[in-house]
Amino acid sequence: MNVYDSERIAEALKPLKYQETSDLKRADLVIVNTCAIREKAEQKVFSFLGRLAGLKRKNPDIIIGVGGCVAQQEGEKILERVPHLDVVFGTHAISRLPKIIQRVEIKKCRIVDVETITTIDEFEAVRDSVDEGKVARFVTIMRGCDNYCTYCVVPYVRGGERSRNPEHIIEEISGLVDKGLREVTLLGQNVNSYGKKQGLCSFSELLYRINEIEGLLRVRFTTSHPKDLSDALINAFKELPKLCNHIHLPVQSGSNKILERMNRKYNRQQYLEKVDKLRRVKPDIAISSDFIVGFPGETPADFEETLNLIRQVRYDSLFAFKYSDRPNASASQLSAKVPEWEKKVRLQRLLDLQEDITLKKNRSLVGSTQIILVEGFSKKQSSKVRESRPPADLQWMGRTSTNKVVNFFQDETDASGNEMLTGRLVHVRIENGFSHSLWGKPVHVEPSAIVWKGVESDAA
Ligand code: 5AD
Ligand code: SF4
After folding, report:
1. In sequence order, what DSSP letters do the residues of 249-268 get, joined into one string?
2. CATH number at residue 143
3. What's the CA-to-centroid distance between 336 and ligand 2, angstroms?
4. Which of 6, 60, 146, 420 has the fewest CB atoms lying closer than 10 Å?
5. Whether residues 122 and 109 fall in one domain
6. Are 230 and 158 in a shared domain?
7. 209 and 231 share one domain
8. Which runs of consecutive H residues, i.e. helices, occur in 212-299?
9. Which ligand 1 atom is nearest residue 223's CA?
10. 223: preceding bond cis by omega (within 30 degrees)
11. Which ligand has the minimum distance to the alpha carbon of residue 149?
12. Which of 149, 151, 189, 310 to mutate to test ligand 1, by most ligand atoms within 8 A of the CB atom?
């Protein structure tokens, strides 16, 4: 969500006189986008803002702004806490940002805008000039959340659930495909309830429509609330060729007592039934999840149930966090807090268990051939290599449909030749499996004019 918002902020500021720089010391305008979901993320914001004081001392004309969830939550208080800050703008104020910056430039004043009125324009605007040529990107289909999980700040900082009009979503994705997009991840706090409130189409219907977009190769989505995972959506995994073979299905805990205290509205059994259904439809579907350890009242026995659930489901990967109190979230009022050291121990046990499972799963793929969509050069080389024609031994990075990162060398002597591979589907024979990625050798590159469901389309 935040990556997407940062792009929207950059987009909104384009009409102003500024140019992007990667060198903070040369900046005349610094906008910090923030996340309030966990306490640690929020602490990082304040230490980063603190470090910007030196920039303001050297260049008093620099404009420093902070946006996103922390800004929404703290409002004016941030100006008091950070004296060198000029602008605080909330999650609903992105479209107003250019005007805010212009006022600060002229009047040299400090401005706070955490108004929660979202104009139709802001939410529905089709962005047609975003960075061209990106192979994979996020597109927001809905915002906000009505679920009120007791630990979560989102409904307070992002507001209630609103879905975008399907026509606008399709228009945006089609426009991006014309500029090189091949894989889209549909984004929302709970995509499974897309459209319900406004009586738009259902989420699975939206997926069927997106599947028809010519030239788009892959569709992903995140995040799914298990309580709203419908049979229609489960079936879509079988029927839609472009829908990737992966679902992120956050469970948070394996203990029914804790799930109830979290207000998740499903129990362990119901969750496991959904996992079974998914695997009946797609036996090799990759499943990932989010976990919170040390939720108030979580006993060692509750935590063991969480570990057992992980052993039972055998996730492909997961994210796990130590519980932290958030402002407004009702769990902060719950007693029986788990001490910090204990949360740390539990987190490590959980991560160790999952690492073992991930490693075994990844190693089991050695010898298989996976089709990966190449996103670009692997991280190690992306900053060094800029030429249009890649040298031999170039390291590329892509993902499998199951969302596993695969790196491989391109060598003039093998099947990948010396073409630019970004945006291409490459068949890679897996030679090694690690805990966060796979390594392999390319055996075939699909032609750039691909045939998809009988439709000829141009793949980069
Ligand atoms: N403490 C710890 N983790 C949290 N998450 C959300 N709120 C909290 C909190 N207060 C985690 C959940 C969620 C993920 C995005 O962040 O696991 O799925
Ligand atoms: Fe937060 Fe729960 Fe909504 Fe997810 S579903 S954003 S955890 S309130």
Report:
1. ---B-S-HHHHHHTT-S--H
2. 3.30.750.210
3. 22
4. 60
5. no
6. yes
7. yes
8. 231-239, 256-261, 268-281
9. 18
10. yes
11. 2
12. 151
